[in-house]
Design goal:
With 264 residues, this protein is of the alpha/beta class. It has 2 domains: 32 residues, no CATH class; 221 residues, 2-enoyl-CoA Hydratase, Chain A, domain 1, CATH 3.90.226. The protein is built from 9 helices and 11 strands. It has a 7-stranded mixed beta sheet, sandwiched between helices. Strands 1-2 form a two-stranded antiparallel ribbon. Helix 4 runs parallel beside helix 5. It is globular. The model has no long low-confidence stretch (mean pLDDT 91).
Length: 264
């Protein structure tokens, strides 16, 4: 019997083999299901080119928030990751860059002190190496309440790092995936020289459920990638299968290379 996956978009059963082959995009409705950080690496970067750094950084319970340590241990066990984000050097189409990827399986990829520090170090290392930066964000929970004001401070910290990278004359690509909300969307995510998004990604500050809790209603399409593109907040909405070729084209353009169409 063929193993199937139920699509989160249309609820149709999709053969798992086809689901994995299409990078978890539903062949029937086009819904883009979340990818892990490792799957993002496999999708985007040249095979064998990723060199992780700052793997020894992980969150701690400095506020003694109830059950926070237990949650962190559960996320580490579930994901096999020490923290919410993978960062390192990589190549995309032969172009060397610094890459950071949040993993929504780890507390929704929310931004606490470690995510802020890792992102900041991405830009600092890129400045040292005169490299572009690619940040792939899927931080549905925004800034992390378990770390209070320290988590909110990461908005300013990461924005300042992006600014220093910009002033050094270097290039930053922000790739937004579903969902990206709150303090992440209001800081480093929205500061790329080029801002890309996957189809249907929910992007914004307070989502529909949060607004409904205070009696506000909003059109369902308001915080989608397509709506933000229409209103000038994004540069492009690109299907997952075309992301790597698009990145190669952008990086090649930056390097002054003639355009190619093979995406390799």
């Amino acid at each position: 019997m063929t193993e199937t996956v139920s699509c989160q978009g249309c609820s149709q059963a999709v053969p798992r083999a086809l689901f994995e082959e299409r990078w978890k995009v539903c062949p029937k409705c086009g819904y883009h299901h979340p990818l892990t950080a490792q799957e993002r690496l496999e999708l985007l970067v040249d095979p064998g080119s990723f060199e992780e750094f700052d793997a020894d950084l992980y969150s701690v319970d400095f506020l003694n928030f109830p059950r926070y340590l237990e949650r962190l241990e559960a996320y580490r066990k579930e994901t096999g990751l020490p923290s919410e984000m993978l960062t390192g050097y990589a190549q995309v189409g032969g172009h060397r860059l610094v890459i950071g990827i949040t993993d929504m399986r780890f507390n929704m990829g929310s931004m606490g002190s470690v995510v802020g520090e890792k992102i900041t170090r991405c830009f600092e290392r890129a400045i040292e190496g005169r490299l572009p930066v690619l940040i792939v964000s899927g931080s549905g929970a925004g800034a992390r309440m378990y770390e209070g004001t320290v988590a909110l401070m990461q908005m300013a910290k990461t924005s300042a790092a992006v600014r220093r990278h910009h002033e050094a004359g270097l290039f930053y690509i922000s790739l937004i995936t579903h969902p990206t909300m709150g303090g992440t969307a209001a800081s480093f995510v929205s500061l790329g020289h080029v801002i890309l998004a996957e189809p249907g990604a929910m992007i914004g500050f307070a989502g529909a459920r949060a607004r409904a809790a205070i009696g506000e209603r909003m059109p369902p399409e308001l915080q989608t990638a397509e709506s933000l593109l229409k209103h000038g907040m994004l540069d492009a909405v690109i299907p997952r299968e075309r992301l790597r070729p698009a990145l190669i084209w952008l990086l090649g353009f930056l390097a002054g290379e003639p355009p190619t169409t093979d995406g390799k």
